[in-house]
Amino acid sequence: MTSAPTSCIRWFRDLSLTDLPLVGGKNASLGEMFQQLTPLGVRIPDGFAVTAEAYRDALDESDAWVQLHRALDGLDKRDVTALARAGAKAREIVYGAPMPKHVETTIREAWREMKARFGEDLSVAVRSSATAEDLPTASFAGQHDTYLNIRGEETLLDAVKRCQASLFTDRAISYRIDNGFDHFKVFLSVAVMQMVRSDLASSGVMFSIDTESGHPDVVFITGAWGLGENVVQGAVDPDEFYVHKPTYRQGFRSVLRRTLGDKQIQMVYASGRTREPVVNRPTPKADRVRFCLSDADVLELAGAAIKIEDHYSRQAGTLRPMDIEWAKDGPDGPLYIVQARPETAVSQRSATQIEEFVLDGQGEVKARGRAVGARIASGAVRLVADARHLAEFKPGEVLVADTTTPDWEPVMKTAAAIVTNRGGRTCHAAIVARELGIPAVVGAEHATTALTNGEGVTVSCAEGAMGKVYAGTVPFHREVSDIAGLKKPRTEIMVNLGNPELAFQTSMLPCDGVGLARMEFVINEYIKVHPMAVLHPERIVDEKERAQVQALWAGFPDGASYFIERLAEGIGTIAAAFFPRPVIVRLSDFKSNEYAALLGGRVFEPHEENPMIGFRGAARYIHPAYAEGFALECQALKRVRDVMGLTNLKVMVPFCRRLDEARGVLAAMASHGLGRGVNGLQVYVMCEIPNNVLLIDEFSELFDGFSIGSNDLTQLTLGVDRDSAIVAESFDERDPGMLKMLKLAVEGAKRNGRHSGICGQAPSDHPEIAKYLVELGIDSISLTPDTVLRTMRALAEIEAKRR
């Protein structure tokens, strides 16, 4: 059964991107995907568009344009009360305009056709699709209204009229003014699409780009139980997932990283007689502590996102990152794409400028949540309980609320920063904050009680995925670096990095990879437990501590699985961020006192008077007291390389005192599937003990490269405990003896055809050390991220003078 062509109705199957003036951005995109991507396995719900002509016909026949001009002409959107009054009047005018008879008849016929196709129990979603919506430079995200679980002809007709009237929500009026759109040249089409029963499963939003750093190589997926409006509106803290696109294209199927959200409420169909077709209810506790998607679901969504991005990029002739809404139909049903539009914030940033915000002080942390925007701002707190209090907000204040709605957008535009109790990094508050270029901390539980009206705070989103709200005005500065004409030196410039949350942001630097990825940082921050404790919790004497250890791996088969997966996700995130550039991960280099400080660690560690030169590094890995823990490290690294496909990962052995230790570690690694040379694996060794320098020819037979650890090498060359404040003045990497050690190390590696690098602090702290190493011909210098650009320019000048 098919309908006759009409100017007021178009089925998705008959639409494409060229129809945007007729059916708006959302409907044109749905039609484009229905036609082009359904054959590729991307599922799109069926439906039709009520065209913009239907909207214009209604206003023409009722002569409503004059009334709309009277309501909106000369409006000062900064006057929140006047804006609300004008918006209410405009919506009343549009809703009151009778629907033309031919439009009503055609909608009824289309509804009956859908019922014949999908059954008597049909319900639909009614969504806006403005002719200036979902453009590459203006998303109009959340500006208009959506109606879910609509059943019956009369209810459908009313929902269409309400949707048309929502062209004049306060937020949409304000958005058009800010973006230079004429109210009377933007028209509203309406999408009528089959409901996906995600009330019985889950739904959410995904981006084909990292939303904070702009890194193009990941799909970022968020989701929660129930219908998707809660994720979109920021009413819940959703689950988060990352998938790496380049390795996915190579055939690897692995979730890169996952974060469990609280998912406090879920939107479901209302039962019984009620005016509202959908309601929110508390999410059952069992569902809050489990992910709303299986790995298979995540990977299917990632595949759809890649296909959508590829298609729209071909259409545009350039990379076109996408903002996509998805929904799962029932507990065991298929996944659907219900919307796709160009991402309009992070992808618009300059490719030749790097902006960094840096805290110059510290303060008490009063609230924490998910960071949005990678910026810092200070201001006075303004608690807003609901829309009635928006008029009290003053420009430059920090907006603090349980959650925000798109209606608040006019006030959000004047805020220094935004803090909410609930919400994820793909909610409307986050999208608006990115478009405005202001920091937002979302999902900061209890922020509205932890912060008080009028107090000064500093909102920092520049410290990784965790956003922080500091008490008082903490000083900070902004650095903007133009890299358009940057000359890269022949010496490779790499970075030292341990925090996976900073990986995507740091990888945007024009560096050659990671010279030192600190495994111990990942263990300390994201795993929090001693590796032997997850294997042998029964040996933990303290019952409370044992219970804490065992609680960590809830949802995992066992403690070993928890440790391996979490470690692989942390290391894998760093490797993915820099792919295909090399990432050298150092095996855990905790000292015994640091291992003992981990949860459950005390019973597994000896007491040492000087742990700096005690039970650490290579000797630990092959000792019976830690061999099982080392096996977990190896299995995590094997997963990164073999399952995730991140073969740019290299492994580095720290504190390897003797040749027999080196052979033992390499043999142990091989027994755990990390054989040197297998699948291209390179194994480096830290050159941080004088014996490594003295026997560099012999160590070269066992390893593929050396990375000078200047901190420990200085300590052991000069006999200075680098943890001792009393003798701190004697610790100096520029000492003549140290310079000779550096020279012997670089020349020895070169003599044996091995890579030579340095990952210690010396080049970051002392530019003259970097200059000296370049003159020796070192292959790479690894620096702290904040010194990369400065050092790169200096080394390029040094090399130019040597020519």
Mean pLDDT: 91
Structure class: alpha/beta
Percentage of residues in strands? 15-25%
What do we call the CATH homologous superfamily of the largest domain? Phosphoenolpyruvate-binding domains
Number of strands: 30
What secondary-structure arrangement, pairings included, does this model have?
Layout lengths: L8 E3 L8 H17 L10 E4 L1 H10 L3 H8 L7 H17 L4 H18 L5 E7 L15 E5 L2 H13 L4 H10 L8 E7 L7 E6 L10 E8 L3 H5 L5 E6 H5 L7 E3 L5 E5 L8 E5 L2 H4 L6 H22 L5 E7 L6 E8 L10 E7 L5 E8 L3 E8 L14 E4 L7 H4 L4 E4 L7 H9 L3 E3 L4 H4 L5 E5 L5 E6 L4 E7 L9 E6 L5 H4 L7 E5 H9 L3 H5 L7 H10 L6 H20 L4 E4 L5 H6 L20 H4 L5 H17 L5 E5 L5 H13 L11 E5 L2 H5 L1 H5 L4 E4 L1 H9 L17 H16 L3 E4 L3 H4 L1 H10 L3 E4 L4 H15 L1
Parallel strand pairs: 16-17, 17-18, 18-19, 23-24, 23-30, 24-25, 25-26, 26-27, 27-28, 28-29, 29-30
Antiparallel strand pairs: 1-2, 2-5, 3-4, 3-5, 6-7, 6-12, 7-8, 8-9, 10-11, 12-13, 14-22, 15-19, 15-21, 16-20, 20-21
Helix pairs in contact: 3-4, 4-6, 16-19, 19-22, 27-29, 29-30
Walk me through what this model shows:
With 803 residues, the protein is an alpha/beta fold. It folds into four domains: 187 residues, ATP-grasp fold, A domain (Dna Ligase, domain 1, 2-Layer Sandwich), CATH 3.30.1490; 150 residues, ATP-grasp fold, B domain (D-amino Acid Aminotransferase, Chain A, domain 1), CATH 3.30.470; 129 residues, Glucose Oxidase, domain 1, CATH 3.50.30.10; 317 residues, Alpha-Beta Barrel (TIM Barrel). It contains 30 helices and 30 strands. The strands form six sheets. Strands 23-24-25-26-27-28-29-30 form an eight-stranded parallel β-barrel, surrounded by five helices. The longest helix is centred in the middle third of the chain and has 22 residues. It is elongated and about 95 Å long.
